[in-house]
Amino acid sequence: MSTTRTAAPANAVQGAIVFTDIAGFTEFTAVRGDEAALELLAIQERLIRLEMGEHGHIVKELGDGLMLWFEDACQAVSCSLAFQEEFERRSSAEDMPLWVRIGIHYGRSLKRGNDVIGHDVNVAARIVDLAAPGEVLVSEATAARVTEDGTDIGFEEIGPAMMKGIPEPVQIYRAVRA
Amino acid sequence: MRCPRGTDVSVGAISGRVNLVGTFGSVKVSTVSGSIEVDTAEGDVDARCVSGSITVKSCGGRCDVTSKSGRVRVERVDGAAHASTISGGVELGTSGRGEVELKMVSGEAKVKVLETKHPRVRFQSLSGKMLCECEQGSDFDLKVRSISGSLEVTGE
Asked: I want to staple B71 with a disulfide (CB 3.0 to 4.6 A). Which of A66, B17, B88, B116 is the partner?
């Protein structure tokens, strides 16, 4: 079967794919109980919607994480940093030792109903695996688009990362406030 | 692979073990399931893996180490240190010249202050316990957050 790409299909979209993951959700649920876990997921979704506004949308829930889609890479990174800052502020104030890990990749994906699929979606999903608690990691493709736009966002190089099922290494950066 | 002393190194691997023997400049290593071992880095270290363990013998600069499910061990760091793990433990020796921040879920954290410095300790946990055998002060910040893991701080 040929895998050569020809003209872009009508359901192809370019954008930033964002994956979030709550570090320690299972342990938190065991210690605090199901109701507290449910409330935690609601807090995550509420904060994401607040920071995201009209710039992006939630594609789907993935257990304790979310998959988001933004048309603009800069908005995706800016929203993710703002979310982390607010989540950190709340978790410190409420004595809640929890963190969210975030991975972002900019690329092409195909719409499938309300979902999006494709190689670049898989890359984004792998990036979040390497993120430390509280961190926002982005691919080079994402960082390049943000740099072009010029903002208060900076990037620290993490280096090349090999990812399971992804043939080429992906250059990874940590997004920070400049 | 061999390289001159003090070389900056960036390595990415999926499942192989990455072992950096000797003295390097700055070091950046990521793996999916392989363990990471670093002898000496004169500069900064960023080492991260999904399921392997991480060992850094000596880091002269800032040290960032994170493993989702492996053990993290830093024998000596002279700059700031940020270590995190979801299910593994953390052992870290600090000269006390930079802040130390540990983020853990369930493993145990052991911090050794290698010089005559007095940390300002802040331990936040839902169910973990802290044992501090080191005189506290204001030389550097030691922040540890954990859901159920415990913290042990010792001096020289």
From this structure: B88
